[in-house]
C-alpha cells in the first residue's frame, strides 16, 4: 500500500489512529475489500505499540468499517457497512443515551411525531398494497385480546416501521427504524400498564384508513392524537411511580 500514514503525537493514540484510518477509508485512500497492513506494519508506520494498533482496529470493527478474515490470505479488510449495520449501531447509541436520561419522553414523542408526519406525507403518495397489508396484519394482532403486553408492544413497533417502509425513502427508513428500534420499546415499557390497547389500535386504524385514502392530513391527525394520548398516559405513569416510591419510603420510615 502506497498511502502515507500520518505521525500521531498526542495523548489518545488509539482514538487518533482510528480517526486517521477511518478518514483514509472515507477518502478512498484505502479501498473497500482492501487488506490493511499487519499489526506490526501499522505499529511501525504510526510509531506506536501493537496493543495500541489492536485497540484502534477494534474500534474500526465496532463501527463496521473493517472485518477480520482467517486463513493464509486472511487479515483485516475494509468493508462497506450495510444500512442495517449502521442503523443498528445508531440504535444502540440512542438506547444507551435514553437509558442514561439524556432524552426526555417529550423529546422522544415530539421527534417521532414530526418525523412520522413527514412519513405520512410521503407514504400517501408512494405506499403500495404490501405496505398496507403489513399494517393491517399488525392491527389485526393488536385487536386480539389474547396478545401479551410484550407481543402488543412488538406489534406497535412493527406497525410504525411499516409506515416508514411505505415512504420508500431510504434515508427516512434508515433514521426512523433506528429511532423506533431504540426508543419506542422504552416508551412502551413506561406506559403499557396505563394505556388502553383499544385506544392505540383505534388510532392505528385511523392512520391506516387515511393512508388507504391517500389523505396525509388525516393520517397526521391520527399521529398527533396518539402523541397527545401517550404524553397523558406517561404523565399518569410518572405520578403513579412517584406515589408508589413515596408510600414505600413512608412504610420503611
What does this structure look like?
The chain is mainly α and 253 residues long. The protein folds into two domains: 13-78, Arc Repressor Mutant, subunit A; 84-252, Four Helix Bundle (Hemerythrin (Met), subunit A), CATH 1.20.120.530. The chain has helices at 13-26, 39-46, 50-62, 83-99, 105-126, 129-142, 149-165, 170-191, 197-212, 216-252, and strands spanning 66-69, 75-78. The protein has a two-stranded antiparallel ribbon with strand order 1-2. A hairpin with a 5-residue loop joins strand 1 and strand 2 (75-78). Helix 5 crosses helix 8. 26% of the residues are buried. The model has no long low-confidence stretch (mean pLDDT 86).
Descriptive labels:
single chain; 253 residues; mainly alpha; Arc Repressor Mutant, subunit A; Four Helix Bundle (Hemerythrin (Met), subunit A); two-stranded antiparallel ribbon; 3% strand
Amino acid at each position: 500500500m502506497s498511502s502515507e500514514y500520518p505521525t500521531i503525537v498526542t495523548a489518545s493514540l488509539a482514538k487518533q489512529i482510528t480517526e486517521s484510518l477511518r478518514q483514509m477509508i472515507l477518502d478512498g485512500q484505502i479501498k473497500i475489500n482492501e487488506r490493511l497492513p499487519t499489526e506490526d506494519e501499522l505499529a511501525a508506520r504510526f510509531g506506536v505499540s501493537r496493543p495500541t494498533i489492536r485497540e484502534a482496529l477494534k474500534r474500526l470493527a465496532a463501527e463496521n468499517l473493517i472485518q477480520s478474515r482467517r486463513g493464509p490470505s486472511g487479515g483485516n479488510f475494509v468493508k462497506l457497512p450495510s444500512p442495517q449495520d449502521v442503523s443498528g449501531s445508531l440504535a444502540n447509541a440512542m438506547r444507551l443515551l435514553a437509558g442514561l436520561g439524556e432524552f426526555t419522553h417529550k423529546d422522544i414523542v415530539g421527534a417521532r411525531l414530526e418525523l412520522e408526519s413527514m412519513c405520512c406525507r410521503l407514504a400517501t403518495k408512494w405506499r403500495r398494497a404490501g405496505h398496507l397489508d403489513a399494517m393491517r396484519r399488525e392491527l389485526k394482532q393488536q385487536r386480539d385480546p389474547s396478545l401479551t403486553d410484550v407481543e402488543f408492544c412488538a406489534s406497535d413497533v412493527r406497525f410504525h416501521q411499516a409506515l416508514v417502509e411505505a415512504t420508500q425513502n431510504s434515508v427516512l427508513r434508515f433514521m426512523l427504524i433506528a429511532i423506533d428500534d431504540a426508543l419506542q420499546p422504552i416508551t412502551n415499557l413506561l406506559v403499557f400498564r396505563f394505556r388502553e390497547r383499544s385506544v392505540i389500535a383505534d388510532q392505528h386504524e385511523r392512520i391506516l384508513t387515511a393512508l388507504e385514502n391517500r389523505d396525509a392530513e388525516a393520517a397526521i391527525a391520527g399521529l398527533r392524537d396518539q402523541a397527545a394520548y401517550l404524553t397523558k398516559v406517561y404523565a399518569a405513569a410518572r405520578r403513579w411511580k412517584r406515589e408508589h416510591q413515596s408510600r414505600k419510603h413512608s412504610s420503611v420510615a
